[in-house]
């Protein structure tokens, strides 16, 4: 089954999904996948590879964002980017003129300037990465988020007052203070620094290949 896509060109990037505009000469791109969903099936039948993300690097190898597979393929076909790491288990995509394997990491051929933002927004995914998916109180696998000073007692929703937490500790702590329980934190609560944390804030699960580009905080 053939899927027709209007390809789009890359413009100045934010650390989220980059903007798009139509690229001359790319409108005839037709991605052909033998495993594509049959006609008439719902969105739940979309192949798993279509939902995957591809890490986009700047020309300087600075991580920018995680792109949908189709957007990454368009950048490659339009020669806006080059593959850095192919996914050995990735889907092979064909068109009338191209045959390529879905990559894991791609890099822009030309450098783009990204506006600098000092403070990283706190999201559940980013907080889990900061605390390495471990409970800040006991060190077991984290399943939820806890406010060190409960919100009912004036605690804020911030990097300095939120931690990854396991369900048992979350239940035991309830709305009490650490001093009332005799508990201590395993590490100081500080906001993460580095532009790659903006990418971590939006992606809970990461391809292991990405880690070499995302810095120590992503490991």
Automatic annotation (TrEMBL):
Ranges where the HNH nuclease domain occurs: 122-171
Keyword list, A-Z: Endonuclease, Hydrolase, Nuclease
Skewed-composition ranges (Basic residues): 1-10
Keyword hit for Cytoplasm: no
Pfam families, sorted: HNH_5
Listed GO MF terms: endonuclease activity
Organism domain of life: Bacteria
UniProt-listed InterPro entries: HNH_5, HNH_nuc, NA-targeting_endonuclease
Region feature Disordered, mapped onto this chain: 1-26
PANTHER family noted in UniProt: OS07G0170200 PROTEIN, SLL1193 PROTEIN
Official protein name in the record: HNH endonuclease
Natural source organism: Rhodococcus kronopolitis
């Amino acid at each position: 089954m053939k899927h027709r896509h209007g390809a789009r060109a890359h413009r100045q990037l934010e650390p989220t999904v980059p903007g798009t505009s139509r690229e001359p000469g790319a409108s005839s791109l037709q991605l052909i996948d033998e495993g594509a969903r049959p006609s008439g099936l719902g969105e739940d039948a979309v192949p798993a590879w279509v939902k995957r993300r591809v890490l986009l690097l700047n020309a300087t190898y600075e991580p920018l964002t995680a792109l949908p597979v189709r957007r990454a393929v368009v950048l490659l076909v339009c020669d806006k980017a080059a593959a850095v790491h192919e996914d050995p288990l990735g889907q092979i995509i064909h068109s009338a003129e191209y045959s390529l394997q879905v990559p894991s990491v791609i890099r822009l051929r030309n450098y783009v300037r990204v506006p600098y933002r000092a403070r990283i927004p706190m999201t559940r995914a980013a907080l889990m990465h900061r605390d390495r998916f471990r409970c800040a109180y006991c060190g077991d696998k984290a399943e939820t988020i806890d406010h060190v000073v409960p919100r009912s007692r004036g605690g804020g929703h911030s990097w300095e007052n939120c931690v990854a937490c396991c369900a048992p500790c979350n239940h035991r702590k309830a709305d009490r203070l650490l001093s009332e329980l005799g508990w201590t934190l395993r590490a100081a609560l500080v906001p993460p620094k580095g532009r790659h944390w903006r990418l971590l804030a939006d992606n809970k699960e990461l391809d292991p290949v990405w880690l070499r580009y995302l810095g120590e905080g992503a490991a």
